[in-house]
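User: Predict the structure for this protein chain, please.
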Amino acid sequence: MDERREMARQLRKMAVTTGDLSCLGCGHERGCSIHGCAVLKRAADLLAPKVDITKPIPLEELRSAAAERPVLVFVLCVDEDGQLEPTECGEWEMFFDDDFIAAGTYDTADNYGRVFVAFWDEPGRENGTVTGGGHGG
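Assistant: Here is the predicted structure, written as C-alpha cells:
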C-alpha cells in the first residue's frame, strides 16, 4: 500500500476519536457529528480519495491518471461469460500510453473490458489483507 493511502487510512481511523485529547476545538466541530473529526476526514480524502474497488476503473479514468506517468493497477481477466476470474488469478500491472505491462505479460487498451479489467486495489482487500475470492461481474 503506498504511503498516501496508508496515511489516509490512519487519519480515517483517528477521525472517530472526536472529543478526546486530539480534538482541539478547531471551530469545525459542527461538521464532525458521530462520524468523527471533519478536519481529519477531509485531510484523508485529499490524500487518498475513497474509491469503490469493487468496480473496474473506466478506461478514460485510467488514461487520465496515466497521462503523465505510469500507474499501478490490479488486473483481472474476464472469462467467456463476462465474469471476472478469481482474485487469486489477478496481477499488478503498470498502465501507460494505452499499454498494460507486467512481468512477462503485455496487453493493450484495445482489449480492455472484453479480456480484462483493472482496479485501483485488489478486490476483496480490507485493512491490508485479502478477504475473499473472485467477484462476479
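The longest strand covers residues 71-77.
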